[in-house]
Amino acid sequence: MLFQSGKLKVRELENKDAALLAKWLLNPAVLEFYEGRDCSFDLEKVRDVFFTSDSGETRCIVLFEDQEIGYIQFYELAKSDCYNFGLDISDIIYGTDQFIGEPEYWNKGIGQILMRSMLDYLLGQKGADLVVVDPQTWNERAIACYAKVGFTKYKLLPKHEWHEGELRDSWLMQYKAKKC
Question: Could you give all domains of the chain from N- to C-terminal order, each with its CATH number?
């Protein structure tokens, strides 16, 4: 277990999770917000993207009340990305991406619990000075979730992410560690 916060647990991705990820990433309701409905994943694609590429991400499964309900990954931003985003390259900056793959767990505050817990982990265990996320500007539910846990909009990223046949704008949102 990477960490636990009450009923929420996060553990590193295991080979046995491939079928679960494929199930989630074939669901149009999930794909509408993660990757796009025109970009579904079969088992082979899940294995290629999540299990064979070494992109420096720590990939994890999210459990709530011991049910596997979602996915989260985190990674330290490269200094070149920090520079390109106008962030302080002397800071330790982590990015994170996540989704709840079981729609019946949406709109229950679990995303906020997940993000608060991930912030605690990255700031406390990984020594992050700053954590960033980059939701697309139209994804109001994600933006509201991040804002409720203390992220602020830092910078508009025009045409930042390919989604459902077009380049879409995203917000770079940041959470700064509180200094003593």
Answer: 3-176 (3.40.630.30)
Question: In sequence order, which residues have a C-beta less than 8 Å from that of residue 42 and are 6 or more positions away?
Answer: 22, 26
Q: What is the DSSP letter of 34?
A: T
Helix (H, G, I), strand (E, B) or coil at 117: helix
pTM over 0.70, yes/no: yes
**What does each C-alpha distance from 63 to 12, 66, 107, 149, 150 come to in angstroms?**
11, 5, 16, 19, 23
64-114 residue pLDDT tens = 999 999 999 999 999 999 999 999 999 999 999 999 999 999 999 999 999
Note whether 149 and 30 are within 8 A (CB). Answer: no
- d(C-alpha 111, C-alpha 105), whole Å: 9
Place of tokens 């330290």: 76
96, 133 in Cβ contact below 8 A?
Answer: yes
Helix (H) or strand (E) holding 141: helix 140-148
